[in-house]
Amino acid sequence: MRLAKHLAHAGVASRRAAEAIIAEGRVTVDGETVTDPARGVTGAEAITVDGAALGGPPRRVVYAVHKPAGVVSTAHDTHGRPTIVELVPEAGTRLYPVGRLDADTTGLILLTNDGDLANHLMHPRFEVPRTYRAKVGGGAVGDAALRALREGVELDDGRTAPARVRRVRPDVLEITIREGRKRQVRRMGDAVGHPVLALRRIAFGPLDLGALPAGAHRRLSRAEIDALRAASRAPRAPRAR
Question: Active-site residues: which are they?
Answer without folding.
Answer: 102
